User: Fold this.
Amino acid sequence: MPTPCTHQFKATDTVVSAAATGPFVNFRYNKAAVVSHVLKEVHTRGTAYGFTNEGAGKRIVVEYSSPNIAKPFHAGHLRSTIIGNFIANIHQGNGYDVTRINYLGDWGKQYGTAHACQHGSGRRSAV
Assistant:
């Protein structure tokens, strides 16, 4: 049954239907038409496929990793580094001036506590 969100939807050769399901709108695509369109674009644009000048003249800073340097570095830290680099690459490929920062800013509770003890009492022996 059409809803206010989908009753005016007009099917195309690519998007064949739209249906509201709770708070979501589900679209059905003609897979063959989508694949055909994408392959034509890839063939036409070659290595420029997926790149635009959308960000020309704009700057973005991508900060990533930031592991707690008071703890051992492990494979879990690579996740945010890889995701950050991926986001930076996408923006750079779309014309943005990207600054990448791998900021080691999480010094951990142990260093903060030591600093507070040292500077709070004014005595080095209090650490």
Remarks:
- The chain has a mean pLDDT of 83.
- The longest helix spans residues 76-93.
- Residues 56-127 form one domain.
